[in-house]
Amino acid sequence: xxxxxxVFAVARPxxxxxxxxSFVDWPITVDRPGRVELTSAAAGFSLAFEQTATPxxxxxxxxxxxxSSSAAAQKSIVDKALALGATRADIGQGELPWEVLADPGGNxxxxxxPRPEYAETGVLAAVVLDSGPVEPAAFEQLxxxxxxxxGWPIVKRHPVQIGLRAPSGVxxxxxxxxxGDAKQVEDRVRLEVTGPAPGLRQxxxxxxxxxxxxx
Length: 215
What we know:
About 20% of the residues lie in helices and about 35% in strands. The two termini are about 15 Å apart. By secondary structure, the chain is of the alpha+beta class. It has three helices and 15 strands. Strands 6-7-8-5-9-12-11-10 form an eight-stranded mixed beta sheet, with helices on one face.
């Protein structure tokens, strides 16, 4: 299997896709009723936005982190996001060195302070999956599952964060974070991978993901 896309369920796919395309400078490569996609060759996967009529009620269990190279660059990225239609988000984070925002569809994302591990990822630093309040063994199992499922090896381990990277060693990280609430509702953001037996499945943490045919 390989990671194909991060899929967001939103009320207005074109509007939210347009925000992200302008924000991270990824071109729109698919625009059809019900689904719009942005693709970056460097990242190796797409951001996809699908139509839903279900309102958002809780924090997403998957979010995007944006990289910055300096305090000034971080502020510039935040200012750009706000100018394009993002809003500041309060998820109980308190005072932190990174900024938490929400896109026009209400999807949370973070603009990080400068960190060495993201110096060469491009603007998108990481796709972050919350594990919820699990025991260490379950946290490790979830990370191993996504390493096998995505085809991305684990290259960084920490008690609360495990980092996966594409075999090429370039582009954003895929990170499993030992944080967040237990799953409460159907996931509005999910990972999509190519592989056999297409269909909707769940990982060991109960997170929804979709397998699609290659091509």
